[in-house]
Write a structure and sequence with these properties.
Elements (H helix, E strand, L loop, with lengths): L1 H18 L16 H18 L3 E5 H5 L12 H5 L4 H11 L5 E5 L5 H11 L2 H4 L2 E4 L9 H8 L14 H16 L17 E5 L2 H9 L4 E3 L5 H7 L4 H18 L3 H5 L36 H20 L15
Parallel strand pairs: 1-2, 1-4, 2-3, 4-5
């Protein structure tokens, strides 16, 4: 029973390492995004997935994505009021992204109220986190060239939609700044010559049109839909099915260990190995090398040879006793 308890505790710790957070239902619901505990769990799942697939830049839309309302670029109230509409999911995700030196994040939006968005970010996060968030609004503070777009996407510029009605130029401009910030960080010494490209970027947006145009430009994107976002995010990690399989196996093993000890500790019956008769190897007798007749074609057995030779030996002894008879030195006989 003590061994059973130790194994149960070991399996329990293994399950905790596999899950890494509180398990929630697979089907997302709008109410789940308001639950702070579930939002934190989803943020942990997201950061694990992003690390596994090698994402270095996460671009997040603002209206109806980062916040749960659409400002239409005409917000007239204070930033404090808008800050209350920030989703709990992103409140947990952004600090996790800021803790990764090889990852950057950006807010990309068609809104021109850049100062408003920056004020909301400072209200939500600590200065160390807010300062790491790149903001790209529809203003004159940034611009990109065709050569920069081609180098980022690997696609010729005349095939790209670089107008401001697409999120593609916003993402490219954010990546250019993220490259500069990552290269100045001593922790990214081995990434100095590996600049962020479209394959290292992920766009999260609630608009299907923005998702489609970004995907056509070679930028991985995910549609922010409350009902399917978590499933889509986890499906990007090819190792997630195997991780869930291991977790399911751990649960099944834990249930098995909770059964009575006599069932667990019972060992299978050993099969009795049938003893085989050892193969005997015999050395041929020297007596089989006696002269034989061609009629038989095979040597006599030891027993037959013994009875044939014995009378002749007796006769030879008798002859030796008689000195008047000469005996040949070699005796040969022929079989009948």
């Amino acid at each position: 029973m003590k061994l059973n308890g130790i194994i149960c505790r070991y399996i329990g710790s293994w399950m905790d390492q596999l899950s890494e957070e509180v398990q929630v239902q697979t089907d997302d619901d709008a109410n789940d995004w308001k639950d702070d505990e579930i939002a934190e769990t989803m943020a942990l799942e997201t950061i694990r997935t992003l690390v596994n697939i090698g994402v270095r830049l996460v671009c997040i839309d603002f209206d109806s994505t980062f916040v749960d309302i659409h400002t239409s670029g005409e917000w007239t109230q204070t930033p404090e009021v808008l800050e209350t509409h920030v989703r709990s999911y992103f409140r947990h995700l952004c600090p996790l992204l800021a803790g990764k030196s090889q990852m950057s994040m950006a807010i990309v939006t068609f809104s021109s109220q850049c100062s408003l968005i920056e004020s909301v970010l400072r209200l939500c996060f600590d200065p160390i986190v807010a300062d790491k968030i790149i903001v790209r609004c529809n203003d004159d503070s940034w611009s990109i060239q065709n050569a920069q777009a081609e180098k980022f996407t690997g696609i010729q510029a005349h095939h790209l939609d670089l107008e401001r009605h697409s999120k593609v130029p916003y993402v490219i401009s954010a990546a250019l700044q993220a490259n500069e910030s990552q290269q100045t960080d001593p922790a990214n010494y081995f990434l100095l010559h590996n600049k962020i490209t479209s394959t290292d970027t992920l766009l999260i947006d609630d608009c299907p049109d923005n998702i489609a145009m970004a995907s056509q430009s070679g930028i991985p994107s995910i549609h922010f839909d409350l009902a399917t976002f978590r499933t889509r995010m986890l499906s990007m990690d090819k190792n997630e099915p195997e991780r869930r399989r291991q977790l399911k196996l751990a649960k099944a093993l834990s249930r098995r260990l909770q059964q009575p000890a006599k069932v667990i500790c019972s060992s299978p019956k050993t099969r009795k190995c049938s003893q085989r008769t050892p193969i005997a190897f015999f050395t041929p007798s020297p007596m089989t090398k006696l002269k034989v007749s061609s009629r038989l074609g095979r040597p006599k057995s030891k027993r037959v040879t013994k009875f044939r030779i014995l009378p002749e030996r007796v006769a030879i002894k008798q002859v030796e006793d008689d000195s008047s008879i000469s005996v040949p030195s070699t005796l040969s006989w022929n079989a009948d």
